[in-house]
Amino acid sequence: MIVNLDQFIEAERPKWERLDKILNRLANDPWRKLPLEEVREMEHLYQRASADLARLATFSAEPETRAYLENLVARGYAEIHGGAGGRSVAHWRPGKWFSVTLPGVFRKRIRAFWFALALMLGGAVFGGFAVALDPEAKQVLMPFSHLLGDPAERVAKEEAGADYNRLDGSKGTFAGYLMTHNIRVTLLVMALGMTWGAGTLVLLFYNGVILGAVVADYVLAGQTTFLFGWLLPHGMIEIPAILVGGQAGFVLAGALIGRGQNKGLAMRLRAAAPDVVTLCAGAALMLVWAGVVEAFISQYHAPVLPYWIKIAFGVIEGAVLLWYFGFCGRKREGDENQ
């Protein structure tokens, strides 16, 4: 029985607001795991709010407070008895996914990204030294026929404008081909995480070898400016996208191996699946952009499109990408974790 309704509401409201805050944080980050103490606190607050609602139900006064408590108790019930499934809708809202979830997952799994980057850099150093020590090695290392010729001859041909019209009327088709091809490669890099990461490791190293061989070939031929103007506009996004695919592959491999995780295989895979899907979707989105840029910007060279403009475009893309994955959504994450 409530003796003084105003005193009762004043005494209980801080506890309702605390429960409301916990539920909001879970709704904003559906995959957030509460520490044991906070789980116990939420259960206690939920039971207390349920009891308060039952006591308030006998009063005709305070309809707004009763409605607030009914909503709070319903959300608490769904959270405690319904699990994370009820929160999946919020997790995949496009705006929230792009501005908070994707960069947040990237940062959470940053160690897998550093590992993928180290592998590709290792491959690039190997490929670069191989071509520097034996120029004939590019016949073996480079899988694309248009890269096997003399870089100086190609640059002279491109700058003379001999091939400027080769994509007329087919830029959209070419961009579509680049998108689908690169997305297939990236998904393969991720899927090979099912080989306990061995396939992902090999493919990332091999892509690094090709990249290093191409860079060494053009730099040694004195075509560094052309190389940067050609690669940076699309490569500044395409290469990180492949690394993000490798990051997803290593997250998958980590769930399979299970080192340091006191969970069964099914639970480990279930816990890793949302992050793997998020990283793959992010990489695919990046590759769509890279395909458009490669078809409409990278294929044009000086004097049609000055190299400094292409290089500046690539540098700006890199700065935006660095800010996005490094800082985007941090404030909102911090607010939700308070």
Low-confidence stretches: none
Helical residues, percent: over 70%
Biggest β-sheet strands, sense, barrel: none
Shape category: elongated
Mean pLDDT equals 84
Strand content: under 5%
Q: Pairing-aware structural class of the strands and helices?
A: mainly alpha
| H/E series | HHHHHHHHHHHHHH
Helix count, per DSSP? 14
Number of domains: 2
Q: What's the total number of strands?
A: 0
Straight-line N-to-C gap: 35 Å
Radius of gyration: 27 Å
Organism: Ereboglobus luteus
Pfam family, one: SpoIIM
InterPro entries: SpoIIM-like
Protein name: Stage II sporulation protein M
Please provide a written account of the structure.
α1 (5-28) packs parallel to α3 and α9 packs antiparallel against α12 (265-298). It contains 14 helices and no strands. It is an all-alpha fold. The two termini are 35 Å apart. The protein folds into two domains: 5-81, no CATH class; 94-327, no CATH class. 78% of the residues lie in helices and 0% in strands.
Identify the notable features of this structure and list them briefly.
mainly alpha; 2 domains
Write the layout of secondary structure elements.
Blueprint: H1 5-28, H2 36-56, H3 63-82, H4 88-91, H5 94-108, H6 110-133, H7 138-141, H8 151-159, H9 171-191, H10 198-220, H11 224-257, H12 265-298, H13 307-327, H14 330-337
